[in-house]
């Protein structure tokens, strides 16, 4: 599951993918759902690819993504902004309180996505 949240930790975009697929392959779908005027994109090391960083720069935003160990040159990131990444982690913890989301009992991706979207609606209502 891949998600984007706003500054308050509310879901903006959620989509489901296969568990064996890397995070950076799905960044384009996430970026399309983001508002036009964003100041920073905060992500984990899974999003540290040249294509993702170029897409963030194209949007005119700051990339707050730590460099992987395999990268030759380390990038400086704003540690205060990077601390906001916990809002995404807290969002995942909120929706995984729903047992159907946490254990993925649904057989099809469409059914699972429906349950995830219901959990997201509950986040917005609280």
Automatic annotation (TrEMBL):
Describe the location of the Transposase IS4-like domain by residue ranges.
1-120
Q: Which residues form a coiled coil?
A: none
A biological process term (GO) from this entry:
DNA transposition
Q: Which InterPro entries match?
A: RNaseH-like_sf (IPR012337), Transposase_11 (IPR002559)
Molecular function in Gene Ontology: DNA binding; transposase activity
Recorded protein name is Transposase
């Amino acid at each position: 599951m891949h998600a984007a949240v706003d500054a308050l930790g509310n879901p903006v975009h959620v989509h489901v993918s296969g568990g064996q697929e890397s995070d950076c392959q799905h960044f384009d779908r996430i970026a399309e759902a983001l508002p036009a005027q964003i100041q920073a994109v905060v992500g984990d090391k899974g999003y540290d690819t040249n294509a993702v960083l170029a897409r963030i720069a194209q949007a005119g935003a700051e990339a707050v993504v730590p460099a992987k160990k395999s990268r030759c040159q380390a990038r400086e990131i704003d540690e205060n902004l990077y601390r906001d990444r916990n809002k995404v982690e807290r969002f995942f913890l909120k929706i995984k309180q729903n047992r159907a989301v946490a254990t993925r009992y649904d057989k099809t991706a469409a059914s699972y996505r429906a349950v995830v979207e219901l959990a997201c609606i509950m986040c917005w209502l609280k």
